[in-house]
Amino acid sequence: MTEHVDVLIVGAGLSGIGAAHHIQAAFPDRSYAILEARDAIGGTWDLFRYPGVRSDSDMHTLGYRFRPWTQAKAIADGPSILRYIRDTAADAGIDRCIRFGHRVIGASWSSTESRWTVRAEHDGATRVFTCDFLLMCSGYYRYDEGYTPEFAGTSDFRGQLVHPQHWPADLDYAGKRVVVIGSGATAVTLVPAMAETAAQVTMLQRSPTYIMPVPSEDTVANQLRRLLGPRRAYTLVRWKNVLVSTLIYQLSQRRPQQMRKFIRGLTRKQLPDGYDVDTHFKPTYQPWDQRLCLVPDGDLFRAIRDGRASVVTDRIDRFTATGLRLESGGELDADIVVTATGLQLLALGGLRLTVDGQEVALPDTMAYKGMMLSGVPNFLFTIGYTNASWTLKADLVSEFVCRLLRHMDAGGYHQTTPWPDPNVSPAPLLDFQAGYVLRAIDGFPKAGSRAPWRLGMSYAHDVITLRYGRIDDGTIRFTRRSAQPGDAEFTGTVGPGPGSEQITA
Ligand SMILES: Cc1cc2nc3c(=O)[nH]c(=O)nc-3n(C[C@H](O)[C@H](O)[C@H](O)COP(=O)(O)OP(=O)(O)OC[C@H]3O[C@@H](n4cnc5c(N)ncnc54)[C@H](O)[C@@H]3O)c2cc1C
């Protein structure tokens, strides 16, 4: 049996629930459904259950534009974020439109029908859906497996080896010696959280990361909320935080040496006198060449000051029965080793796409405005910013979808396709030097050397182009189903893809 909806959303995480909210509010009469592979709402915020899991951006920008974040803490814990997403879904009745346990595996576009046919695995069978618009909100990484480098001797280790993506609910680390391998956001979250009850926690890093302390509560936000009420305060604080984070990012790009000095000054203040800041907190790259790690109220530094946590900068030679041997010859004893070594990126939830019978190789496509694919009709995807909160972009993508649908309604169009420009040269979709990006970026669509193909990383710029800019910009093309190329009444230019001819009547 095939079920048809106007808009099909893949993924019930932060982006999918947000997208459903926008579409439902803008088009109460349109049908939509969300297909979700797991049995829960929340995506990232349901999957990750390690101690201390939290955001490292503020919730005034990680929250939805349409739903003020009203809690005192701006850097929020994972369960609070999950509750926020679930409440958003429940309050708007979005949860009734989610089909859990549906893993989308393939989608085929037919230009004759102006329609997607989407296949999903459910309970060992294949379910088929059709839709006019397909919106991928499937995140950016594999859910079934995190990334663990090959370490020699892991089978010799008699302690417990844990990856943060698969945290055992019953893991008891009280009084134990813990080594956390890694220096990214997950490692710097885990170390102070586990140090509260563990005997000792060591963060073992190959190389340092920029780590900046931030207050977990935003006093300006909390006072404005009392004065102006939640909605007006939220809008103001959102812009305040966008401006501050843009300023930090721009300074990092334009004046990296000054920014290095500034972060180093903050770090020194947080650590005991004589601490070897250069070895453990002086990265070799420039600020924001990789994501800047924020630590609320300097909790990581406090744990180091209190002697409950320490940092070792070295390389692993091999695991031993009792812990780790390091290349320097040192040994670290451990009862538990946590491999906070990252994610495995995955483009579009592993979906296989075909357009009019032809398979779409993602690396051969180019991303239009960072949310549509060249030659792929009626298809949008959400990838957030790497230098700002994810939801800022996710909200804009959803708003753009609504504008696009309105434009198509007004013109009586059935199909819209970004048309590739042979004069634009391809560039990596994410210009970001983090290891997890470099490992996988070849499997992703490309970005282009100039607008609208360059992936913008400026929220203010995207507000202008996505919320207010022209929809019909000459790069995306619109067609009507009744008027196929060659028909006398055909009036537009036509997709669906690269290699097709441009036809005007
Ligand atoms: C530990 C951690 C902390 C983070 N902290 C921050 C932060 O502080 N700030 C920030 O901006 N970003 C942060 N991020 C990035 C984070 O992923 C985004 O903020 C946001 O949660 C992404 O939401 P999403 O809905 O787009 O994707 P996800 O949360 O990944 O949700 C995707 C959903 O799609 C489903 N899905 C995937 N493929 C398929 C398929 N083929 N069929 C059906 N369903 C599918 C998944 O099961 C999942 O439910 C963090 C990420 C991690 C891992």
From TrEMBL:
Domain of life of the organism encoding this protein: Bacteria
Cofactors: FAD
UniProt entry keywords in alphabetical sequence: FAD, Flavoprotein, Monooxygenase, Oxidoreductase
Signal sequence bounds: none
Presence of the UniProt keyword Flavoprotein in the record: yes
Region (Disordered): 482-505
InterPro entries, per the entry: FAD-binding_MO, FAD/NAD-bd_sf, Flavin_mOase-like
Similarity annotation: Belongs to the FAD-binding monooxygenase family.
PANTHER family: MONOOXYGENASE, PUTATIVE (AFU_ORTHOLOGUE AFUA_8G02570)-RELATED (PTHR43872:SF1)
Name of the protein this chain belongs to: NAD(P)/FAD-dependent oxidoreductase
Record organism: Nocardia amamiensis
Native organism taxonomy: Bacteria, Bacillati, Actinomycetota, Actinomycetes, Mycobacteriales
